[in-house]
Amino acid sequence: MSPEARLPQPSLCLTGLSLLLSLVPTGLGMEVMAPPIISALNGTSVKLSCTFNSCYKVENKQFSLNWTYQECKNCSEELFLQFRMKIMNKQLDRFGNRVEFTGNPTKNDVSFTLNNVQLEDEGTYNCYVLNPPDRQRGHASISLKVLTKEPPKRDSTVAVIVGASVGGFLAVVILVLMVVKCVRRKKQQRLNTDDQKTEEEGKTDGEGNPEEGTK
């Protein structure tokens, strides 16, 4: 095999790098992370991975999850899997009983597996997560592509090594950003609580002692 054949394809490297960069938190709200594109071979099973970051412990009584399906960009979303205290599958005709929840919300994993993938399963899968006291609902989308035959194999050893190195670095970055985010959020909550207490004390001092006013 020639040296050129062993080199990673540029498109493969760029795709992997784009995927890794998409996992980096961009704000102070809840982050929901999922690969933008997943390919599956017709007739096989595929895991649609979705994870989230939250500064708060998951409580089943408050935590909520919705998975929806869109056949096309402008099509309406169809709810097919929901978590409210427990997992509830909405048995859409297109999926039947082929949807299996394989995540664990207490471990920040809300993935599911789609068994016996069909060509008509292609489309966009939306993952919505809410974990109070987080006020904003997080969202991520996955575009599922169904293949009729296996793609040609490539020697992507170098690409895997590069991807692993970049992935390890980004994992550290994500961890640091999450720690900073949680520290800021908890500090802001303490400031809000202190301001509220100061305001209440000010109101009390302003009212004064009724007996002093009559002297």
UniProtKB/TrEMBL annotation:
Which SUPFAM superfamilies is this protein grouped with?
Answer: Immunoglobulin
Residues annotated as domain Ig-like: 25-143
Organism superkingdom: Eukaryota
Q: Write down the Pfam families for this protein, in alphabetical order.
A: V-set
Location of the region described as Disordered in the Swiss-Prot/TrEMBL record: 188-215
Q: Which InterPro entries match?
A: Ig-like_dom, Ig-like_dom_sf, Ig-like_fold, Ig_sub, Ig_V-set, Myelin_P0-rel
* Localization per record: Membrane
N-terminal signal peptide: 1-29
Keywords, comma-separated and alphabetical = Disulfide bond, Glycoprotein, Immunoglobulin domain, Membrane, Signal, Transmembrane, Transmembrane helix
Residues crossing the lipid bilayer are 158-180
Q: Compositionally biased, Basic and acidic residues: which spans?
A: 192-215
- Assign the protein's first listed, main location to one coarse class: membrane
Q: Which Gene Ontology cellular-component terms appear in the entry?
A: plasma membrane
Question: Has UniProt tagged this entry with the keyword Transmembrane?
Answer: yes
Topology of this chain in the membrane: Single-pass type I membrane protein
* Name this polypeptide is given: SCN2B protein
The coding gene here is: Scn2b
